[in-house]
């Protein structure tokens, strides 16, 4: 969440940030009204307590009346606080000034591209045709429902190869490996600023336990230092986490149903950084650089896209995406995201440096397994239906080609 003091002192800037995102800025006025109401109750409460403190023993009747007044105002103060918090959590992070202003994904800006788009002398097959029996959606649908899959054989080996490859790329740069929980408390998700993820009904929720399944490892790596003070000398503190993630894919029904591009369950390696406030912009660029090194090592053609204000994540102040070439569709599709959330999440989780400032927090995809399997399959196919394994992954898989069954 944003600093309430910042909102009060920069109302026009906050409103402008929401308008750039294509959002109704009226929520800012609702927050300010509830905030003023809550602070008025606080002032009145302090005044009443001050009056009671100066009363003598002989003023019991007056003291009792003041006590009753305090009790009557308490639920009103609590109601104002709850409304204030609700409106505050509905205000997104403010985009950096350099972020391109746009209405939707069509206004995202390509910054660079790398690699040669493969030119096949045959009609390229999609990943489901290429994988054959290695991706079994039919049995998974029978067992679990739609948008689930069994990943088998060499594709399962390729997943572990990708994780090993990414970890070995990142560990020399000070990343700490972590396997985080995949269930988090509701207050933790709210602290991470995931209210939109929840409100859009994209999150899986277990009401009996008040727990959410994570939509990305970010959701449980970020809270690793909640309510802690990190020594300034330890910053930047970097993690690379591996976990299974879960999304309902709400709003995408009928879209990308055929393959494994949009699944309810997927595995992912995620980079996460805690930095000094003055270093987060630089760290954002560093994480993007790491993503590009990972992609270039795999030899997959990609482009870097600057995400516009309206398409950017709710918690982000700046966001880059990497889109990888998908031969069966003849276009680039998203494979990575890289975001700076500044102190938006650390404020909700109460994470500060030893200098007393809220740290800045950043997240970036290391590799989203399902999608990466698709790109490897389609970009490395041969006329006879074989799939070559990228050289960087061959030592981990132990072979040069994928065996389809």
Automatic annotation (TrEMBL):
<keyword id="KW-0648">Protein biosynthesis</keyword>
<comment type="pathway">
    <text>Aminoacyl-tRNA biosynthesis; selenocysteinyl-tRNA(Sec) biosynthesis; L-seryl-tRNA(Sec) from L-serine and tRNA(Sec): step 1/1.</text>
</comment>
<dbReference type="InterPro" id="IPR002317">
    <property type="entry name" value="Ser-tRNA-ligase_type_1"/>
</dbReference>
<keyword id="KW-0030">Aminoacyl-tRNA synthetase</keyword>
<keyword id="KW-0067">ATP-binding</keyword>
<feature type="binding site">
    <location>
        <position position="247"/>
    </location>
    <ligand>
        <name>L-serine</name>
    </ligand>
</feature>
<keyword id="KW-0436">Ligase</keyword>
<feature type="domain" description="Aminoacyl-transfer RNA synthetases class-II family profile">
    <location>
        <begin position="162"/>
        <end position="390"/>
    </location>
</feature>
<dbReference type="GO" id="GO:0005737">
    <property type="term" value="C:cytoplasm"/>
</dbReference>
<feature type="binding site">
    <location>
        <position position="270"/>
    </location>
    <ligand>
        <name>L-serine</name>
    </ligand>
</feature>
<dbReference type="InterPro" id="IPR045864">
    <property type="entry name" value="aa-tRNA-synth_II/BPL/LPL"/>
</dbReference>
<dbReference type="InterPro" id="IPR002314">
    <property type="entry name" value="aa-tRNA-synt_IIb"/>
</dbReference>
<dbReference type="GO" id="GO:0004828">
    <property type="term" value="F:serine-tRNA ligase activity"/>
</dbReference>
<dbReference type="Pfam" id="PF00587">
    <property type="entry name" value="tRNA-synt_2b"/>
</dbReference>
<dbReference type="GO" id="GO:0005524">
    <property type="term" value="F:ATP binding"/>
</dbReference>
<dbReference type="InterPro" id="IPR033729">
    <property type="entry name" value="SerRS_core"/>
</dbReference>
<comment type="similarity">
    <text>Belongs to the class-II aminoacyl-tRNA synthetase family. Type-1 seryl-tRNA synthetase subfamily.</text>
</comment>
<dbReference type="InterPro" id="IPR006195">
    <property type="entry name" value="aa-tRNA-synth_II"/>
</dbReference>
<protein>
    <recommendedName>
        <fullName>Serine--tRNA ligase</fullName>
        <ecNumber>6.1.1.11</ecNumber>
    </recommendedName>
</protein>
<feature type="site" description="Important for serine binding">
    <location>
        <position position="365"/>
    </location>
</feature>
<dbReference type="GO" id="GO:0006434">
    <property type="term" value="P:seryl-tRNA aminoacylation"/>
</dbReference>
<feature type="binding site">
    <location>
        <begin position="334"/>
        <end position="337"/>
    </location>
    <ligand>
        <name>ATP</name>
    </ligand>
</feature>
<dbReference type="InterPro" id="IPR010978">
    <property type="entry name" value="tRNA-bd_arm"/>
</dbReference>
<dbReference type="Pfam" id="PF02403">
    <property type="entry name" value="Seryl_tRNA_N"/>
</dbReference>
<keyword id="KW-0963">Cytoplasm</keyword>
<feature type="binding site">
    <location>
        <begin position="247"/>
        <end position="249"/>
    </location>
    <ligand>
        <name>ATP</name>
    </ligand>
</feature>
<feature type="binding site">
    <location>
        <position position="363"/>
    </location>
    <ligand>
        <name>L-serine</name>
    </ligand>
</feature>
<keyword id="KW-0547">Nucleotide-binding</keyword>
<feature type="binding site">
    <location>
        <position position="216"/>
    </location>
    <ligand>
        <name>L-serine</name>
    </ligand>
</feature>
<dbReference type="InterPro" id="IPR015866">
    <property type="entry name" value="Ser-tRNA-synth_1_N"/>
</dbReference>
<dbReference type="InterPro" id="IPR042103">
    <property type="entry name" value="SerRS_1_N_sf"/>
</dbReference>
